[in-house]
Every structure is written in structure tokens, then in C-alpha cells.
Design goal:
The complex is a heterodimer of chains A (291) and B (245).
Chain A: E1 2-11, E2 14-24, E3 29-33, H1 40-48, E4 55-60, E5 63-64, H2 70-77, E6 80-83, H3 95-106, H4 111-124, H5 140-152, E7 158-162, H6 170-187, E8 190-195, H7 198-204, E9 207-212, E10 215-220, H8 222-227, H9 231-237, H10 241-254, H11 264-269, H12 271-286
Parallel strand pairs in A: 3-8, 3-9, 6-7, 7-8
Antiparallel strand pairs in A: 1-2, 1-4, 4-5, 9-10
Chain B: H1 2-17, H2 24-40, H3 43-64, H4 73-113, H5 116-122, H6 127-164, H7 170-178, H8 184-209, H9 215-244
Helix pairs in contact in B: 1-6, 2-6, 3-4, 3-6, 4-6, 4-7, 4-8, 4-9, 6-8, 8-9
Classes of the chains: A alpha/beta (291), B mainly alpha (245).
């Protein structure tokens, strides 16, 4: 579990994070969502120690990371895996060497044991016959998988993922999302994902922190997000008409008003559906909200 | 003030290099890799410029020594001393500042921009130590060797130009080389080579490591690194000459 307690961070005279408090739960996919510039990447970088916080504290399983000596931090970092937005693979190394690098650096295993582990994690992320390829020779989705394989090769307790779906098509994004979720459960990790992809939110958002202009605006899960009455959150999540309709449909589905096994075209042609959606909106306007 | 702030950050980078390696074998591997990259990578250009600078030095010296009372052996003496004290260490290192400096700044800048340095930091690796120290040490080992090679090839280039151009015979040229040789000049040249090697590896490493932005900034950092290295090499050249000679 990672606890963020009243964290603030400024660059020059611009305050990026304002008194952010949240808990990232173990064995769950914790999502930090928000528009570009809302401070989610800065928060994640503060969590892994790439930026120092100005105020507040970050605790890893009760241990304060903020006040930890550098040597202790180094040890803790070996329990952290991170997948970067651009994958951050080492260009001059093959896929295999990239994944093997943390093992070379931090273990005294023999070559065979290292290679067994490399092949095991590459298999886990469904990568085959790519061992000898260089990052420039594989697709964006494959790069993300290699990044995930490298991040989990040392069996980390904490996994940080920055924009896992940027530059990927929706289908590949879904595969990467589900892979991260499966790995989180399998390794019982605390996974923190920065994203502004709504598919990710609705598919793997077990614990969601919505950030708005450097503040934690809303906390909840993917079910609660549908019923949220927070205007800023709704504007961000359900930005298009299509998504607003999808939200309404999901609300009706969650409430058991409609059956999601019906064909969507038939459903939308049914005047009763629209009537239900309108009623639902009226009901939503009067319901309490969580902040 | 900006100069002092930059110098302070440079010193902090240098201080950060000297920490206990996480895994000595990996650092050694990186050091050897950098020795090949810097040493072997710059070998070709060093060979070419050394032979030509020796040859040009011999031809120009001969053109100016028109007085028949000055012995012909003076040509090889002048070629020898100028090549050893100035051309081999300074000229070669200025060229290497362009070749190696831009490579180091570009490589580290690209690693910074593509978050590879952040990835290493998060793994718990001291990137100043793992990425910068092997480059600086490799430069300190290989560049003096390249400078020694440049001395030999420069003198050889002068001999080739002298004999082929009919300036002096090989025998007279060789005799001149052995006359009035001051061994300290070699020590002086090596002192310069070590100093310049440190400058041309650490300064570009500093600019590359601290790149912020994208591809444009990487290019700018490489240019700044090369220009700064060249200026510092020339400045250090003067200081060393004033102190040691």
C-alpha cells in the first residue's frame, strides 16, 4: 500500500500539486486520471522519488519514503517497477538484454537462471521470437510489453505505469490494460497507473483518483464514476456525446433497468430507452455525490 | 551568475560520479564498452589528422627556413617539438571534442529525453556514476594513448612529406629528430592530454545529462558542449603552458 499524505509540489513559482492525499491499494489497479497538466505525472514522479515533495509525505507500506536515507531508497527502488509513456527501453540493447538488465545489475544469478527468468516474463507478456530484436524493430504495443516485462522481472511489490495506452490503437490498449490488471493480481502488487484513456478507466479502474489543477478532486472506482455528479469529472470523463450516451446506458444497466445483452442498435431505436435515460438524468441531478 | 550556477551544477555532477558501484562487473563492462567507443571510434580521424599535420608542419617549416646557414636537421627538430607539445595534444583533442563530445552529449541527451535515465534511476542505479563515470574514465585512458599515437604519426607524416617532397633526406630528418630532444616535452604533452581528456568527456556529459526538452534541445546541447569544451581546452592549454614551461 502506498499512502500519499498532503503532498504539495511547486516548480519555480507555479504550484503543481496542492495538498494531495490518497491511498494506493495493494493488489488493485490504482488509476490517477486527469487532463494534461493536472499534475498526475508530477505526482507519480514524486511517488517514485524522481521529484522531491515540498510538503507532505509518501509512505510505502507504512515506511516514509520522503524522509528515507538515499541508501534505503535505493533498496526500496529495487522493489519498484515502472513502465514509461515511451517505454524508455535502452536503444542499444536487444529486447532480451533490456529485460535482463535489472537481473544483471542486482542479482548474482548465473546466466542460465537469468535467461530462464527473462523468457518466463517475456512469455508472461505474450512476447515470442522477439528476444534478439532491437526496440526500433518492434511495434509500439510490443515495446510496452517489453517495458512491462522489464518492470516485473525483479518481482517488484510496486508497479508504476505512465500513460500505458498512449500511441496505441484501442484494441492493443485493451490488451495492455488487461495484462497490467492480470499481472497486478498475480503478483499482488500495488499498481499505480497514470492515464486519461476512458477505456482504461472503465475496464480496470478499481481505485481511481481524479486530479484537477493539482488537487485530488474525486476518489472512487469505475462503478462510482458512472453515478458521480462531480461536474469537472463528468466533463473530463464523458467529454463526447457518444461517451455521455454510453454513461447513461451503463447507468441503466447498473441499475438493472436494461439488459446489456440486447443489440445496441435495437436498444437505441427503442423510444423507451430514451425515456428511461431522460428519467435517469433527472434522478441523477437530485442524487448525492462523493468527493 | 548563470556561469557560477552552471559551474556549481557541473561540480555536483562530478561529485555524484564517485559513489560505490551497484555492481562492479556491470560498471567494468560499460567502461570497456566506452573505451572501444571512444578509443577505437576516434582512431581513424586521429590517424588522418596526425599524418597531415606533421606533413604540413614539415613543408611550412622548410618554406620559411631559407637561410643556408641553418642546418636542414632543424626542420625535423621543429616538426618534432611542435607536434609533441602542441599539435598532438591540443589539435587532436580539439578535433576529439567535436567527435567524442557531440557523441557523449547526444547519447546522454537522448537517454534523458526518452526517459531512459529516469528508468535507470527508478531501478535504484546511480546514473551519474553508471553513465558518466565510465565515459570520463575511458576518455582518460584512451585519449592519452591516442595523443601518443598522434605524436608518432605526426613525426612520421613530416618525414614522409620531407622525403617525398625532396625537402630533406630521411637520414637527415632522423638525425634531426635525435638532436636536442627534451623528454619533459612528452610529460608536458601527456599532462595536457589527461586534462583535455577530462574536459572533453565531462563537459559534454554535463550538457547531455541535463538536457530538458526534445530533439532540438539535444542538438543545442551537443553544440554548446563542443563549443564549451573547445574554449576550455584552449584556456587550459594556456594555463598549463604558463605553469609548466
Amino acid at each position: 500500500m502506498i499512502e500519499i499524505k498532503s503532498v504539495s509540489k511547486s516548480f519555480a513559482d507555479k504550484q503543481i500539486l496542492k495538498d494531495v492525499t490518497a491511498v494506493m491499494e495493494t493488489g488493485k489497479t490504482n488509476l490517477i486520471i486527469g487532463t494534461s497538466g493536472s499534475g498526475k505525472t508530477v505526482l507519480q514522479k514524486c511517488m517514485v522519488g524522481l521529484f522531491e515533495v515540498d510538503e507532505g509525505e509518501i509512505l510505502y507500506d507504512g515506511k516514509s519514503f520522503t524522509s528515507m536515507p538515499e541508501e534505503e531508497r535505493k533498496e526500496l527502488r529495487q522493489q519498484i517497477g515502472m513502465l514509461f509513456q515511451g517505454s524508455a527501453l535502452f536503444d542499444s540493447m536487444t529486447v532480451e538484454q533490456n529485460v535482463k538488465f535489472p537481473l544483471d545489475m542486482f542479482t548474482k544469478w548465473n546466466h542460465k537462471k537469468k535467461m530462464d527468468r527473462v523468457n518466463e516474463v517475456l512469455d508472461r507478456v505474450n512476447l515470442k521470437d522477439t528476444n534478439k530484436k532491437f526496440p526500433a524493430e518492434v511495434s509500439g504495443g510490443m515495446k510496452k510489453r517489453v517495458g512491462i516485462a522489464r518492470a516485473i522481472v525483479l518481482n517488484p511489490k510496486y508497479l508504476f505505469v505512465d500513460e500505458p495506452n498512449s500511441g496505441l490503437d484501442p484494441q492493443t490498449s485493451m490488451v495492455i490494460d488487461l495484462l497490467i490488471k492480470e499481472i497486478t493480481e498475480e503478483y499482488n502488487m500495488t499498481t499505480v497507473i497514470n492515464t486519461h484513456d476512458m477505456n482504461s478507466v472503465m475496464e480496470i479502474g478499481e481505485n481511481i483518483l481524479y486530479m484537477y489543477q493539482g488537487e485530488n478532486e474525486w476518489i472512487g472506482n469505475k462503478k462510482e464514476i458512472i453515478f458521480s455528479k462531480n461536474d469537472k469529472l463528468n466533463e473530463f470523463i464523458f467529454a463526447s456525446e457518444f461517451l455521455r450516451d454510453a454513461k447513461d446506458m451503463r447507468m441503466l444497466e447498473e441499475k438493472g433497468i436494461i439488459d446489456n445483452n440486447r443489440d445496441m442498435d435495437q436498444l437505441m431505436e427503442d423510444p423507451e430507452t430514451h425515456l428511461l435515460m431522460d428519467n435517469n438524468k433527472t434522478e441523477e441531478d437530485t442524487s448525492p455525490d462523493k468527493k | 551568475m548563470k556561469v557560477f550556477a552552471t559551474f556549481g551544477r557541473y561540480l555536483m555532477l562530478m561529485r555524484g560520479m564517485f559513489t560505490k558501484p551497484e555492481n562492479f562487473r556491470m560498471y567494468w563492462k560499460e567502461f570497456m564498452h566506452q573505451c572501444v567507443e571512444i578509443g577505437i571510434g576516434a582512431l581513424g580521424i586521429v590517424v588522418i589528422i596526425s599524418i597531415f599535420m606533421g606533413a604540413v608542419s614539415a613543408v611550412q617549416t622548410a618554406a620559411q627556413l631559407t637561410n643556408p646557414l641553418i642546418p636542414k636537421t632543424t626542420i625535423s627538430q621543429i616538426v618534432r617539438d611542435t607536434v609533441i607539445t602542441e599539435f598532438a595534444p591540443t589539435l587532436v583533442c580539439i578535433v576529439l571534442a567535436g567527435v567524442i563530445g557531440s557523441k557523449i552529449a547526444g547519447e546522454l541527451g537522448n537517454m534523458r529525453v526518452s526517459e531512459q535515465i529516469d528508468a535507470l534511476e527508478i531501478m535504484g542505479i546511480n546514473t551519474k556514476s553508471y553513465l558518466v563515470m565510465p565515459k570520463v574514465l575511458a576518455a582518460m585512458v584512451t585519449i592519452p594513448l591516442l595523443v601518443i599515437l598522434a605524436m608518432i604519426l605526426g613525426i612520421l607524416g613530416g618525414r614522409i612529406a620531407s622525403t617525398l617532397g625532396g625537402i630533406v633526406s630521411g637520414d637527415i630528418y632522423d638525425r634531426g629528430l635525435l638532436m636536442g630532444f627534451i623528454p619533459f616535452y612528452v610529460t608536458f604533452a601527456l599532462a595536457k592530454a589527461y586534462t583535455f581528456a577530462f574536459i572533453l568527456s565531462s563537459v559534454p556529459a554535463f550538457y547531455g545529462y541535463n538536457v530538458k526538452g526534445g530533439a532540438l534541445e539535444i542538438g543545442r546541447a551537443s553544440t554548446t558542449a563542443v563549443v564549451s569544451s573547445c574554449i576550455l581546452i584552449l584556456f587550459a592549454d594556456y594555463i598549463l603552458a604558463a605553469i609548466l614551461l
